[in-house]
Amino acid sequence: MTTGTATRLAGPPAAEAVIATASAQAAGLPTPPHLVIVRVGDDPASVSYVRGKAKKAGEAGLRSTVHALPEATPQADLLALVATLNADPDVHGILVQLPLPAHIAEEPVLEAIDPDKDVDGLHPVNVGRLWSGRPALAPCTPAGIMAMLAHYGVAVAGRRVVIVGRSRLVGRPLAGLMLAADATVTVAHSRTRDLAAITRSADILVAAVGRAHLITPDMVAPGAVVIDVGINRVVGEDGKSHLTGDVHPHVAAVASALTPVPGGVGPMTVAQLMANTVQAAERQRSGALGELLR
Ligand SMILES: Nc1nc(=O)c2c([nH]1)NC[C@@H]1CN(c3ccc(C(=O)N[C@@H](CCC(=O)O)C(=O)O)cc3)C=[N+]21
């Protein structure tokens, strides 16, 4: 077999382009947009992601505040904090880092966030706006994937997109964004029969399942563009823990383009959070006019 090597769709250059645009927009606002991140508990991955997000916000010329609440925080206290942030005109974006501790129900917390400050795009109002094809704050990972494809000149309109995974944070909203961009969309998942036959029909294949190396070369059409959203921590032969995606490395021999993990979709997620925060600040500034336009 001859092995081609897929073009590497690197995250950082595309992420920098998104951040540069967001920074320029932010500079045109009366005050720098203010992002508030709420983290409950000390999950090491969450601590590290939140740190990365706050750092990027500073680099982009945004303000950020992190509320790190103890693991045992009662749900009512978290809801009270969200209400305070909603009412504060100096707060433009609110992100509650997931997952929350088991004693806190996710839904009431997400539904408590002002939809116009919901930079994660997880409030049902934003989900509904997205699915009815209206302007909406969209979840950062799928919006970042769309930005990445645009950055690298990968056309979406009219093409077959297969998304493996139907999560609230990635698979479902990505399907909505792809549909809005005129793709023909299939969402596959753990109960899908003959997954390989479906994934082989994709011009653009997105793996967002959270199972290391689920997508093998036989599941990919020659020349397909493959987006790997997986962030799996695995212990390698060297005994060290490292990150790997949902896509097997040998897929690079079949695909025309492939996003690496790390250094692919992850940085796009963070960049898109900055873009969403600026968008939220602009929506709030446009106030009553914005109300009419939505
Ligand atoms: N309310 C909420 N919104 C989120 O958007 C959200 C969340 N909760 N909970 C967890 C997931 C995961 N997530 C990532 C963000 C950045 C990287 C990222 O920057 N990854 C780097 C490497 C990071 C590392 O080395 O650990 C990369 O892929 O190159 C990954 C994953 C946002 N999430």
Automatic annotation (TrEMBL):
Tetrahydrofolate dehydrogenase/cyclohydrolase catalytic domain: residues covered: 22-120
Listed GO MF terms: methenyltetrahydrofolate cyclohydrolase activity; methylenetetrahydrofolate dehydrogenase (NADP+) activity
Pfam families, sorted: THF_DHG_CYH, THF_DHG_CYH_C
SUPFAM superfamilies reported for this sequence: Aminoacid dehydrogenase-like, N-terminal domain (SSF53223), NAD(P)-binding Rossmann-fold domains (SSF51735)
Binding-site positions, NADP(+): 165-167, 231
GO CC field: cytosol
Subunit annotation: Homodimer.
Family: Belongs to the tetrahydrofolate dehydrogenase/cyclohydrolase family.
Name the record gives this protein: Bifunctional protein FolD
